[in-house]
Design brief:
Number of domains: 2
Structural class: alpha+beta
Helix content: 40-55%
Largest sheet: 4 strands, antiparallel
Strand order of the largest sheet: 1-2-3-4
Number of helices: 9
CATH topology of the largest domain: Aspartate Aminotransferase, domain 1
CATH architecture of the largest domain: Alpha-Beta Complex
CATH class of the largest domain: Alpha Beta
Strand content: 5-15%
Shape: rod-shaped
Distance between the termini: 52 Å
Number of strands: 4
């Protein structure tokens, strides 16, 4: 069993009730996953195996133990007191050694297969469904571009972000004279294939 002295120190500094709980969890994790690596992250012990696997922590009145891919390991988990096993105040609050070992093995299998954590999956799904805000082109710019075929073609090839830069620059003008001047400058730069902030692009 390869251990991290920082985890030893963490357990030693924990409350008396917490020490046997943490030692037991640590032993089960190492027994189930001989290749596990101990480390301290966010000031409490973590166990890694091909990525984050699980973690444990002690507080004033309870301990916590949880898996990085929590709901995939323990679908019926309580998710209270940080972790899927609820607030652990004694060894009796923990599942049997056999059940705890099975959880660790399941978490290992998820990492072996490269299954992402639930929050990662949710974030990716949200990114796919996110609808981009359409670029609203000021009518003054549209009219000016229609009079310059070269600028119109170049603007059509611009990315949405580059189109938005010009649109916002012109819309932000408070005076009509300023807006007209910016429209003229915009058409000139666009015709040359330049973005609004071309000077700062590398």
């Amino acid at each position: 069993m390869t251990t991290d002295p920082r985890v030893d120190a963490y357990i030693a500094k924990s409350a008396d009730f917490a020490q046997p709980i943490l030692r037991h969890i640590r032993e089960v994790v190492h027994s189930a996953c001989p290749d596990v690596v101990e480390e301290m992250k966010w000031s409490f012990p973590h166990f890694s195996y091909k990525g984050m696997l699980c973690s444990m922590a002690s507080f004033k009145a309870h301990c916590a133990f949880g898996f990085w891919k929590g709901s995939l390991v323990i679908p019926e988990g309580k998710e209270t007191g940080m972790g899927q096993l609820g607030k652990i105040t004694s060894l009796e609050d923990l599942p049997s050694k056999r059940e705890l070992t099975a959880y660790v093995k399941k978490a290992m299998k998820l990492n072996d297969e490269g299954v992402p954590a639930p929050y990662v999956t949710a974030r990716r799904a949200a990114a796919k469904t996110k609808v981009a805000t359409p670029v609203v082109i000021p009518p003054e710019l549209t009219t000016a571009l229609e009079r310059n075929k070269k600028a119109l073609a170049a603007f059509g090839a611009f990315s949405p972000s580059h189109k938005r830069e010009y649109a916002e620059w012109i819309t932000e003008a408070k005076r009509e004279e300023t807006k007209e001047r910016r429209v003229a400058q915009a058409v000139e730069m666009i015709a040359e294939g330049k973005s609004r902030n071309w000077k700062y692009e590398t």
